[in-house]
Amino acid sequence: MKDDNKGSDPSNAKVIAVKSRSAAVALLLLIAVAWMPSASAKWPPNPRMRDTRVMRETEDRIAVPSTNASIIVRSFRPAGTGPFPWIVLSHGTAPDAESNRRPGHFRNVKLIAEWVNRGYAVFVPVRRGYGESGGDRFGDSYGTCARPDFLGAGEGAALDLLATVAFAKGQLDVDPRRWMLVGQSAGAFASIYAASKQPAGLVAVLAFSPGRGGDPDKRRGEPCASDQLASLFGKIALKVRVPVLWFYAQDDEYIGPRVQKLWFDSFHLANPQSDLVVVPPFLRARGHGVFPAPEGVPLWTSAVGSFFASRSISMPF
Fold first, then answer.
1. pLDDT score of 9 more than 70
2. Is 98 exposed, middle or buried (0-12, 13-18, 19+ CB in 10 A)?
3. Domain boundaries, position 253
4. Contact between 61 and 67 (Cβ < 8 Å)
5. What percent of the chain has a predicted confidence (pLDDT) above 90?
6. Residue 267 belongs to a domain with what CATH number?
7. In 10 A of CB 4, how many CB atoms?
8. How many structural domains comprise the chain?
9. pTM of the model
10. 20 to 30 A Cα–Cα from 6, which one of 102, 114, 139, 216?
């Protein structure tokens, strides 16, 4: 898809195209072996805990301050006692309400294992209105394309993510000074927005296909009100104090190349601690699901490893 954006092109932006899958796969295998938990590791018994052989899983329902609602948070841990580095992993949003309300939709064990096998604890909130959290409305709804409220969507999502952060920091086996916000699509937008609240101990944000308003069946590659969201990205960028990785595929049918560049440029001009990675066309998930897809693992892990190195982020990977 041709990039016809005529906007700015900051000279100090780090834009990377991942061209070699074989090198990334080799690196991934080396890292995975190094971080694989011992098969003889014993985990403490817990009636809320499920042994998945590669991680320990718990489920909690937590209150969201300033609302009358609560959300489900699933936690996944490696073997051992910690303190672990950790991430808050935020799910995306489907174009239709029925899919978003379907229970059990936000538990991607293979994706989570990529983090647990590297020594991370993973906290996965199900935002208000989605899946098992339930509720009569979506806490991060932006309304309609005719009258979008992206600011309201960001504030609503941040409430859920920051409630999860507070819950995680109450756990004795995690390090409150070594954690990241990681998200896919609407969850990536939520992660960037929550970072603008400057939560203590946050080290970085990893935003995979960040954005809102995409619908490939109605507006292929062109999310609604993209200029409005670009403006919001520019405003919140001033308040984000940590490095942010933006990651897209060239053929993303939800957020095409023009809008990818528009949104990243708007953010980067106000926050030069941001890098953009654009990978070649990804044939699955309409180019939008590189991060959650098994085939995408070599691409995003390579990008994250390079990002950590270039930004001197002292987190395991």
1. no
2. exposed
3. 14-33+53-310
4. no
5. 74
6. 3.40.50.1820
7. 9
8. 1
9. 0.83
10. 216
